[in-house]
Amino acid sequence: MTALRQTIIRGGLEWLYFTGAHLALKPLLGGMGAILTLHHVRPPRLDRFQPNRLLEITPRFFTQVIELLRDSGVDVISLDEMYRRLTRADFGRRFVCLTFDDGYRDVRQWAYPVLKQAGVPFAIYVATSFADRLGELWWLALEAVIARNDRIGLEIDGRKQVFDCTSVAEKRALYDELYWWLRGRSTDAELRTIVRDLATCYRVDITAFCKELCMSWEELAKLAADPLVTIGAHTVNHPMLAKIPAETARAEMELSRSVIEAALAVRPQHLSYPIGDSTSAGPREFAMAAELGFKTAVTTRPGVLFRAHRNHLTALPRISLNGEYQRLRYARVLLSGSATAMWNGFRRKAA
User: Fold this and answer.
1) Domain membership of residue 175 as a residue range
2) Is residue 206 part of a domain?
3) How far, in Å, CA of 119 to CA of 222, rounded?
4) What are 195-230's pLDDT values in tens digits?
5) In a 3-state reduction of DSSP, which class is residue 36?
6) Any residues with CB less than 8 A from the CB of 339 and at least 6 apart, and which?
7) Does the pTM of the predicted model rise above 0.90?
8) Are residues 124 and 222 in the same domain?
9) Do the bridges between strand 159-164 and strand 75-76 make them parallel or antiparallel, or are there none, so unpaired?
């Protein structure tokens, strides 16, 4: 995310908070609840080049958010309870669900003790290849290639290009350029081939990130034994589903559920689409998830839940706790629904 875009977003959040507009708009835009998206919870790193910092928040901020939720009078509930309330039109009390994507080890180390002590339920969406130590966290491989080198060569759109990236500013700019160029590839396979080749050329072990960062099946099993924990599916290989053939996308969803059931003796009833924006999950994927019998499926499209979402259970929006905006006032604004409403042009169903 560019510095200018971050500044604009932060300015909007500040304006909504300090004018009190988020409180005035909450009765109209706050909906009936929200699903929060998290990835990493861990102590801050000292590296100056952290292009994926948006995916991680500190244990201190996480604890503050949990305290905020408990003090604000909303119900913090499981995905099953959310499903029950949506399908039975039980809209008496506002609620929040906590969800973690991918299955990172730091969730167990830093987030779980806080949640356990508070008695707060939460969900972990597991990408099975990550637990199998075979997955490709390609965004981290890209970060590592740029972090470890001052000059990088890459063929872009048929033309060999060389990038100098000595300074932190140059590395940040290059990461943004290459990340969004990769995200714009027409197929998920093309993106992965490019990153694999890049990682091989610059001696980055793309599969090592799973072993270092992701929970093993044994670790996941210990969490799954706790009634507070819901295990959800997050596909096998974490692809952008909209950019792979229909039969492959369906297999990714279905097989991930079967693998989790075999490993943990828990059959996931809830799904998270990898990446989860409009370029990676759309009507085709929403229909597939419903056909496969998932109770709910979540995107990363920003928004709170309204009554109308009971008719779109496999296209639910979420609110990201973004590592670039670790202020409680920002969390208050986001939970009010005012910021996401403005982002969505005041449409209640962005999907």
Assistant:
1) 138-201
2) no
3) 17
4) 999 999 999 999 999 999 999 999 999 999 999 999
5) strand
6) 12, 13, 16, 22, 302, 333
7) yes
8) yes
9) unpaired
